[in-house]
Structure formats: C-alpha cells, structure tokens
C-alpha cells in the first residue's frame, strides 16, 4: 500500500526507523521531537545522527517540534519510552484528540502499573488506541531487512486499517485483538532479557540462559493469563518471538544492561533500558495479585541493590523442586 499520512511522536531510534521505512513505502511522515532547534537541524541534515546515524531520510519525511504538524495524520505512532508516555499525554495529549494512537513502547508504567493502552485511554479518552510490538531492532527496520510485528487493537475495523497503513514491503504486521497479551509479552521479555544478560555476564553459561529463557517464558505466560491474555499471543511474535530476539542478541540494550550487571561493569545511564523500571512495576503487580514471579523479582532486587549476585543465584537455585 502507498499513500496516507503518518505522524510519529519521538525521534528516538525506533521512531526514526519507522519514519524512514514508512516513507520509503510511500507514506508522508511527520516526525515530532521536543526540541525545536534539533528538529530544524534534523530536517536540514536529513539524518538522525544521535539515534540512527547513517540512515538518510526520504524527502517525504518532515521533522517538526510542533504537534500541530502531526495532529491531522491518519495515525499517530507514539515512540516514546514507557515511563515518559503518561507525562507526554498529560501535557500534550489534547492535541491528538480523536486520532488513532498506536503505542510503540514496551513496558509497564511504574506509578500506574498499567501498559500503554490504558495510559492512552486515561489521558486521551477520545483517542482510538492500538499497540505495535514484536521482535525488531530499529537498525534492522531502517536497513529494510525483513521484519514481522504484532499489531494489537480491540476495534476490528481500526485494526485492519492500521495493519494496511503500517505494513510495508519489508515490515509485515500480524493483527490480534489481544491487547493485554501483546503488551505484557513486550513488557516482560525485556525483564527476562536483562536476566539472560546477567547469566551471560556472570559466566553462568548458555545452558543456564536457555533454562532462564524457558522459565522466564513460563513466568510471562503466568502473569499475562492472569490479566486475561491468550496463551497463543504469548507464543507469538510479541511474546516468544521478541523474547528470543532480545535474550540472544548483543544489539539489545536490555540484554547488554544485564551483561553489565552480571559482570560488574558500569552501564551508560542515558541508554533506554525499558526492562529496568518494568521489572519493578511487574514485581509490584505480581505482589498485588499474588502471582509468583521469581525471575522478575530477582531482577528488580538486583537492580535496586537489595541482593547481590551470588545470593540471587543461590536463592533461585534453592527454590523447592516442582513439576514443570
Ligand atoms: N530501538 C529499538 O530497536 C526498538 C525500540 N522499541 C521501543 O520503542 C520505545 C522507544 O525506544 P527508542 O526509540 O529505542 O528510544 P531512544 O532512547 O532511542 O529514544 C527515546 C526518544 O524519546 C524521547 N523522549 C524521552 N523523554 C521524552 C519526553 N519526556 N518528551 C518527549 N520526548 C521524550 C527522546 O528525546 P530526546 O532525544 O529529546 O531525549 C528520544 O527521541 C521503547 O519503549 C522501546 O522499547 C521497540 C522496538 C525496537
Ligand atoms: O524491543 C526491542 C527488540 O524487539 C529492542 O530491544 P532493546 O530495547 O533491548 O534494545
């Protein structure tokens, strides 16, 4: 499909990659960032040097710091980190009233303990929401490598329209109405990816990583089913697919953060690591709902410095033996 006008909020790595791939496929794209001077420079330079260096913008990408520039778009993609989404919508959501808003962030809000679609419904009640999630590194999308994602939307008609508007020759969107499953899979896989990174960073071996990924997947499924998700969604792109990608690739920031934690190295605090806040949020959710989440709880405790690595490993290994 070609044509249509897409607005993108957030010129980070992911927002920029989506802007470029959608524009190459014929959409007019307006890419919004919060700083007017940087927006002007990016518009002139035709490149996002800070977040996606080396990828030139097609001429049908325009960069703006004015939300009026995107409020008439057919769909607006919210490509902000999870923990800033509510603040952005409280401050600026009014400008996006009535628009289809597609959350592209992965995580659970630490204060509200909800995913992005509930934040959108609360802060912009007139908006029609969807969630775009699944296994994809921004660099791969920007290079035009084949990528498949999940588009989750409760409204059948809107979901089908967005699926057409946001799929390209190399970006293939699969549709589901299981928003809870898609959101929770995307949020939790980042926590498990941190744990997988810790395992590798601490030198515990590939076998331990495979065990961790499998038990982590059981944990993701347990939590998601308790929130009304369907098991098949967790077994799809937004759950298992993204878990595999993120736990096994050094391109992943969550995985690299875990490696640093496991090997006692420092990690640049300016890098977006969604799983860190989400580990705490999900740990709190689990406590509230009485759901056993041993891996998530341990990741949250390690990040907060409430436990050291040898004790964390010992605690996980000494849990009572049980049926798989
Ligand atoms: N990168 C990837 O490969 C993928 C990322 N995602 C998801 O996309 C989301 C965004 O990630 P990503 O693009 O990588 O993140 P980046 O760290 O690359 O960029 C974050 C962007 O958010 C902006 N931002 C931060 N705080 C605010 C705020 N308060 N108001 C307005 N803008 C703000 C930053 O702007 P500024 O520069 O001004 O600080 C920056 O443009 C995450 O949830 C991530 O999980 C999903 C799939 C792949
Ligand atoms: O979500 C992603 C891949 O699907 C990106 O992972 P990171 O945020 O860990 O880099």
From TrEMBL:
**For this UniProt entry, what is the primary localization, expressed as one broad class?**
cytoplasm
Q: Where does NADPH bind?
A: 14, 34, 106, 138, 253, 271, 274
Which residues are sn-glycerol 3-phosphate-binding?
Answer: 106, 134, 136, 189, 242, 252-254
Catalytic activity field: sn-glycerol 3-phosphate + NADP(+) = dihydroxyacetone phosphate + NADPH + H(+); sn-glycerol 3-phosphate + NAD(+) = dihydroxyacetone phosphate + NADH + H(+)
User: Which parts form a coiled-coil structure per UniProt?
Assistant: none
Keyword check for Protein transport, yes or no: no
Quote the pathway field: Membrane lipid metabolism; glycerophospholipid metabolism
Q: Can you give the residue ranges of the Glycerol-3-phosphate dehydrogenase NAD-dependent C-terminal domain?
A: 178-313
Q: Where is the active site?
A: 189
Presence of keyword Lipid metabolism = yes
What EC number(s) is this enzyme filed under? 1.1.1.94
Cellular location(s): Cytoplasm
Question: Residue ranges of the Glycerol-3-phosphate dehydrogenase NAD-dependent N-terminal domain?
Answer: 6-155
Q: Which Gene3D superfamilies has this protein been placed in?
A: N-(1-d-carboxylethyl)-l-norvaline Dehydrogenase, domain 2, NAD(P)-binding Rossmann-like Domain
- Key words of the record: Cytoplasm, Lipid biosynthesis, Lipid metabolism, NAD, NADP, Nucleotide-binding, Oxidoreductase, Phospholipid biosynthesis, Phospholipid metabolism
Q: A single GO molecular function, which one?
A: glycerol-3-phosphate dehydrogenase [NAD(P)+] activity
* Entry's family note: Belongs to the NAD-dependent glycerol-3-phosphate dehydrogenase family.
The protein's role, per its UniProt record: Catalyzes the reduction of the glycolytic intermediate dihydroxyacetone phosphate (DHAP) to sn-glycerol 3-phosphate (G3P), the key precursor for phospholipid synthesis.
> What name is this protein filed under?
Glycerol-3-phosphate dehydrogenase [NAD(P)+]
Provide the species name: Fuscovulum ytuae
Underlying gene: gpsA
């Amino acid at each position: 499909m070609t044509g249509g006008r897409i607005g993108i909020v957030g010129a980070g790595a992911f927002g920029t990659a989506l802007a470029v791939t959608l524009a190459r496929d014929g959409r007019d794209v307006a890419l919004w960032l919060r700083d007017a001077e940087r927006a002007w420079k990016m518009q002139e330079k035709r490149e996002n040097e800070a977040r996606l260096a080396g990828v030139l913008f097609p001429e049908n990408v325009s960069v703006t710091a004015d939300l009026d520039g995107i409020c008439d778009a057919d769909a607006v993609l919210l490509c902000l980190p999870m923990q800033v989404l509510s603040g952005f919508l409280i401050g600026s959501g009014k400008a996006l009233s009535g628009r289809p808003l597609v959350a592209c962030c992965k995580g659970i809000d630490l204060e509200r303990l909800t995913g992005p679609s509930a934040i959108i419904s609360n802060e912009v009640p007139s908006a029609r929401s969807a969630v775009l999630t699944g296994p994809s590194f921004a660099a791969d999308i920007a290079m035009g490598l084949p990528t498949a994602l999940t588009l989750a939307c409760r409204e059948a008609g809107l979901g089908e329209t967005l699926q057409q508007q946001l799929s390209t020759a190399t970006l293939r969107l699969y549709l589901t109405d299981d928003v809870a499953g898609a959101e929770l899979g995307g949020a939790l896989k980042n926590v498990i990816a941190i744990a997988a990174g810790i395992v590798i960073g601490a030198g515990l071996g590939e076998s331990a990583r495979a065990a961790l990924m499998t038990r982590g997947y059981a944990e993701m499924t347990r939590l998601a089913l308790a929130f009304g998700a369907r098991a098949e969604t967790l077994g799809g792109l937004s759950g298992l697919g993204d878990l595999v990608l993120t736990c096994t690739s050094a391109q992943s920031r969550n995985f690299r953060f875990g490696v640093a934690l496991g090997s006692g190295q420092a990690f640049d605090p300016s890098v977006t690591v969604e799983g860190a806040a989400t580990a705490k949020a999900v740990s709190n959710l689990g406590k509230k709902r009485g759901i056993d989440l041993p891996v998530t709880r341990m990741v949250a405790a390690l990040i907060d410095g409430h436990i050291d690595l040898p004790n964390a490993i010992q605690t996980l290994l000494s849990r009572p033996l049980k049926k798989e």
